[in-house]
């Protein structure tokens, strides 16, 4: 893709993202007209003070959460697909989100057992984020250990699926033995939602996202080399061990952090990198990484807008919407059967 | 002379794998050197340890005994990054990515030389263009890898290795899976590159005939023996090519430069124009008639092609080799 059309595509992506962002502030159980929000941005106060509260307390954090979650999940998906050289890899498919869930479950159960009052307050935010990240990293470690032994991409997926089920089973056992209060907390968390994020959580989320994305910027070149496989990458001076750790830490922080805040969200991580490849028609990670990030933000903002069921007071769970959009996309990709040819 | 300087040298090394305290020796007592500007072919039967030797020279596996010297320094004293600037490779591993264009693939070769973000300098772009020119793939640069034929892909991979701009180029079976024309093309390309770019090129191959035609130096590897090294023509004259053939029944024919079946030479006198005689003999040898057929003579005429089989009982005439062979099969065995 030529440089000019590349800039135009990114610019268009940015415009779409911005439009969806404002749309998300506008729709919901209380409709706030689009032009009013635009006017608010230019400094004019809104017609009603309640609108101000709705936007600042609920919709703005929610929209920012959607953007961050979209970016994080897509970038972890892209990293996993390149590292495992598997077009079907993604944080949800390979059980990373379940691992994060296990971390949160253990955290919540342990906190009740030891009588810590967490989940609310600054300590709570960080403990949830960190335990989710640790859970995600644990599963990633197991997966890359397996990937190192068996180099077959189908086996890797099956193993990921098994890890996912095993982890879910452990969570089920934990819930069985836990008190009603913790169970409720965990169940609410696991249903997943972009909303209900406090500013405190948002800051933690932002910090985790930056922390997770930073190493990716340093590893772009290594990921490009990985397109040819480990042996070639090594012959080009890439330290595979270091890259593996970088990938595990970055993906763990991004996917784990996102799961901590929003609960498990399916299909963004696996589908968005493929969308980016289709749009940008390249394998170069210097383009694909920002491309997937912006595409991820757009897709999750769009899914969130759909989940609001415009014109109704009801809200669909975000995980259901992403699955409804993502699953057909993955099936379509498989039916085209040119995964390996366009990967 | 700068041109014939050896860049990599090894004296009596053992290669193999280490697992804990156990060593599995694959080959020992190997001595060799790689010289700039020369195309070296490593030949040997499957399973003799060619890949292990290649990986050892690439620095991926340590030697079990002895040191490989790269530019007079032990190979182990180089780190991955330094090594990647000296040695570049084309492996047998299949490339699964298809979305890159040929140009982007060749650009990947500059990875060891670029900064953290992989930005290509003017010099890098020059080297990339040079690599593309040297492999004659200018017309392919904007084509995606998934649209290339095997031969084109192999050339693109060679261009990528060239762009890495090391002094040593190692290729593991670059001509496997290629058709005859592509095999010849790739080997002649490599032979040309060794000279024009002054690189030390090492390849493994099973393609004996093409290798004899193109290689400067042969390394013959055989189980439990040191490497036999020399110019292929010298090795043929010294009757060392048979090292490649561990089994009975086959033998290297120094006249044709091919591996042929033992005892399957045509002993019947055949006279006539050179080409026709060669192929009549080849057909008879293939069918293994040589022992049973005695007291006969064959005369071939070129225009129009006909074969006269002269025996005591009389002369038979054939219009093509097939009918001759059918006749002999029917009446003489």
TrEMBL record, chain A:
Record family assignment: Belongs to the binding-protein-dependent transport system permease family. FecCD subfamily.
Give the GO molecular function terms. transmembrane transporter activity
Organism classification: Bacteria, Pseudomonadati, Bacteroidota, Cytophagia, Cytophagales
Spell out the GO cellular component terms annotated for this protein, sorted alphabetically and separated by semicolons.
Answer: plasma membrane
Q: Which UniProt keywords apply?
A: Cell membrane, Membrane, Transmembrane, Transmembrane helix, Transport
Instruction: Please give the name of this protein.
Output: Iron complex transport system permease protein
One protein family per Pfam: FecCD
- Indicate where this protein resides in the cell: Cell membrane
Native source species: Cecembia rubra
Give the top-rank taxon of the lineage listed in the UniProt record for this protein.
Bacteria
Name the Gene Ontology biological process terms: siderophore-iron import into cell
Q: How does the protein associate with the membrane?
A: Multi-pass membrane protein
Q: Where would you find the membrane-spanning parts of this chain?
A: 7-27, 63-80, 92-119, 125-148, 155-178, 198-218, 245-267, 287-306, 318-335
From TrEMBL, chain B:
Q: Which UniProt keywords apply?
A: ATP-binding, Nucleotide-binding, Transport
Q: State the Gene Ontology terms under molecular function.
A: ATP binding; ATP hydrolysis activity
Question: Which InterPro entries does this entry report, sorted A to Z?
Answer: AAA+_ATPase, ABC_transporter-like_ATP-bd, Metal_Ion_Import_ABC, P-loop_NTPase
Any one Pfam family here would be ABC_tran
In which domain of life is the source organism classified? Bacteria
Alphabetized CDD domains for the sequence: ABC_Iron-Siderophores_B12_Hemin
What sequence ranges are listed for the domain ABC transporter? 8-248
Q: What is this protein called?
A: Iron complex transport system ATP-binding protein
Q: Which organism is it from?
A: Cecembia rubra
């Amino acid at each position: 893709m030529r440089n000019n059309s590349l800039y135009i595509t990114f610019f268009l992506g940015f415009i779409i993202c911005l439009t969806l962002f404002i749309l998300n502030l506008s729709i919901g159980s209380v409709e706030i007209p689009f032009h009013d929000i635009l006017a608010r941005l230019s400094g004019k106060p809104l017609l009603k003070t309640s609108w101000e509260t709705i936007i600042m307390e609920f919709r703005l954090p929610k929209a920012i959460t959607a953007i961050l979650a979209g970016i994080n999940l897509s970038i972890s998906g892209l990293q996993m697909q390149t590292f495992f050289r598997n077009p079907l890899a993604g944080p949800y498919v390979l059980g990373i989100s379940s691992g994060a869930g296990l971390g949160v479950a253990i955290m919540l159960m342990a906190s009740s057992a030891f009588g810590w009052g967490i989940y609310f307050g600054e300590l709570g935010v960080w403990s949830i984020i960190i335990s989710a990240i640790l859970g995600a990293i644990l599963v990633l470690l197991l997966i890359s250990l397996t990937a190192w032994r068996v180099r077959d991409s189908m086996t890797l997926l099956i193993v990921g699926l098994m890890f996912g089920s095993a982890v879910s089973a452990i969570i089920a056992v934990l819930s069985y033995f836990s008190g009603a209060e913790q169970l409720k907390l965990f169940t609410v968390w696991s249903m997943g939602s972009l909303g209900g994020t406090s500013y405190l959580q948002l800051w933690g989320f932002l910090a985790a996202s930056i922390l997770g994305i930073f190493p990716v910027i340093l590893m772009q070149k290594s990921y490009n080399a990985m397109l040819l496989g480990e042996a070639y990458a090594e012959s080009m001076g890439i330290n595979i061990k270091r890259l593996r750790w970088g990938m595990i830490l970055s993906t763990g922080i991004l996917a784990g952090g996102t799961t901590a805040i929003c609960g498990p969200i399916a299909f963004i991580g696996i589908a968005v990198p493929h969308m980016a490849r289709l749009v940008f028609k390249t394998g170069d990670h210097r383009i694909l990484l920002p491309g997937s990030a912006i595409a991820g933000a757009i897709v999750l903002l769009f899914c969130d807008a759909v989940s609001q069921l415009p014109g109704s007071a009801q809200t669909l769970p975000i995980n259901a919407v992403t699955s409804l959009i993502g699953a057909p996309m993955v099936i379509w990709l498989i039916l085209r059967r040119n995964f390996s040819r366009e990967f | 002379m700068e041109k014939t300087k050896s860049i990599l040298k090894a004296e009596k090394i053992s290669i193999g794998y280490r697992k804990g305290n156990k060593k599995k020796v694959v080959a020992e007592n190997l001595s060799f050197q790689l010289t700039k500007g020369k195309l070296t072919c490593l030949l040997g039967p499957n399973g003799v340890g060619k890949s292990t030797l290649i990986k050892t020279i690439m620095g991926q596996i340590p030697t079990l005994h002895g040191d490989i010297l790269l530019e007079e320094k032990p190979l182990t004293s180089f780190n991955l990054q330094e090594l990647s600037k000296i040695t570049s490779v084309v492996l047998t591993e299949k490339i699964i990515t298809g979305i890159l264009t040929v140009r982007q693939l060749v650009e990947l070769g500059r990875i060891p030389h670029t900064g953290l973000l992989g930005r290509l300098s003017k010099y890098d772009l020059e080297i990339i263009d040079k690599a593309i020119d040297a492999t004659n793939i200018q017309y392919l640069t904007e084509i995606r890898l998934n649209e290339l034929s095997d031969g084109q892909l192999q050339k693109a991979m060679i261009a990528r290795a060239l762009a890495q701009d090391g002094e040593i180029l190692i290729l593991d079976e670059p001509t496997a899976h290629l058709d005859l024309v592509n095999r010849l093309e790739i080997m002649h390309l490599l032979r040309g590159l060794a000279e024009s770019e002054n690189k030390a090129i090492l390849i493994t191959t099973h393609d004996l005939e093409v290798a004899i035609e193109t290689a400067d130096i042969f390394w013959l590897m055989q189980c439990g023996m040191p490497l036999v090294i020399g110019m292929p023509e010298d090795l043929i004259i010294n009757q060392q090519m048979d090292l490649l053939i561990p089994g009975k029944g086959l033998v290297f024919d120094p006249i044709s430069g091919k591996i042929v079946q033992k005892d399957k030479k045509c002993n019947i006198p055949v006279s006539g124009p050179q080409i026709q005689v060669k192929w009549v003999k080849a057909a008879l040898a293939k069918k293994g008639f040589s022992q049973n057929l005695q007291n006969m003579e064959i005369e071939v005429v070129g225009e129009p092609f006909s074969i006269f089989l002269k025996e005591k009982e009389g002369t038979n005439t054939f219009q093509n080799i097939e009918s001759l062979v059918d006749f002999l099969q029917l009446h003489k065995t």
